[in-house]
Structures are given as structure tokens and as C-alpha cells.
Specification:
It is a single chain. This protein has 147 residues and is mainly beta. Helices cover 0% and strands 41% of the residues. The chain contains no helices and twelve strands. Strands 1, 3, 4, 6, 9, 10 and 12 form a seven-stranded antiparallel beta sheet that branches. A five-stranded antiparallel beta sheet has the order 2-5-11-7-8, with no helix packed on it.
């Protein structure tokens, strides 16, 4: 999928768990629970999105989770943006993480986001099938200019 160079790219990107993205890999189908709608990453340790966002200025990433999956993920998650690694750091007592500022870059091409989840887990088996591997339960991911 290519973005024409004549179009202005949006200055922010928001991925909501209820939304389907055509260029997203390693995400399970949306689920709903007491926390709202979320998607588990997995079965691999890296969930990826290809997005179109204006990268002329620094951006900050916000990740809102419904569940960390494995407790060791609380302090081990990272966001890789076009090959550069940014640790995802917890903010406050909830399940919100922040990364950045994400450095600007030249050009109007797509941005590759990878959420690295080092600790996967399996839910309890149901029936005779092996349960799928899961990482973290994402409610929302956004990239916005810093305030």
C-alpha cells in the first residue's frame, strides 16, 4: 500500500483495539472484557504495524493495556520505530506506558512500528486444541506530538 507524496500525512496516529488495520501482524482478534475492547499480541514476540504519520517532528507513543499478560512484561516492553528501540515505561499506577520522544525523520514514507513483548503466555486450554500464545492485551496505541 503506498501513500501518494502529494497528500499531507496526519500529525497523529491512533490504533484502537476495535479497529481493523490492513497492515498489522501478530495481533489476535478483538475481545471484550471489563476493561473494554482489547487485542492480545501474539503468537510471536513482535507485533507490527505499518502506519502513515507525519514524522517531521518528534512524536510520543502512548500505550494503554488491558493486561500485561506475563508479570515480567511490566518493565520489559519496547517499541521499535523504523529500527530504533524506545523502552515503554509505565506512567502512574495503571496499565499506561509511554515511549519517546520518537525522533523525526525525512520523507513521507510509511512508518514501521513493532511492539516487542519478551514474555509470552498461553491461556488455559479449552477443549482439545492447544491454546495460542499471547503477549499483552492492547486497548489503544497512539503516536502524537508532545504537549
Amino acid at each position: 500500500m503506498s501513500q501518494p507524496h502529494s497528500l499531507t500525512l496526519p500529525e497523529r496516529f491512533v490504533f484502537d483495539a476495535a479497529t481493523d488495520l490492513p497492515e498489522a501482524w501478530q495481533f489476535h482478534a478483538p475481545e471484550e472484557g471489563p476493561e473494554g475492547v482489547f487485542r492480545w499480541t501474539g503468537p510471536g514476540a513482535e507485533a507490527a504495524l505499518t502506519i502513515w504519520v507525519d514524522r517531521r517532528y518528534p512524536l510520543r507513543a502512548w500505550l494503554e493495556l488491558a493486561d500485561f499478560g506475563h508479570p515480567a512484561n511490566r518493565d520489559a516492553l519496547s517499541l521499535i520505530v523504523d529500527g530504533d528501540i524506545y523502552p515503554l515505561l509505565r506512567r502512574g499506577p495503571g496499565n499506561n506506558l509511554i515511549a519517546g520522544p520518537i525522533l523525526p525523520r525525512d520523507g513521507n514514507g510509511p512508518t514501521q512500528l513493532i511492539i516487542r513483548v519478551p514474555h509470552l503466555h498461553s491461556p488455559p486450554p479449552q477443549g482439545h486444541r492447544a491454546p495460542p500464545l499471547r503477549g499483552i492485551a492492547i486497548k489503544r496505541l497512539s503516536l502524537t506530538p508532545p504537549d
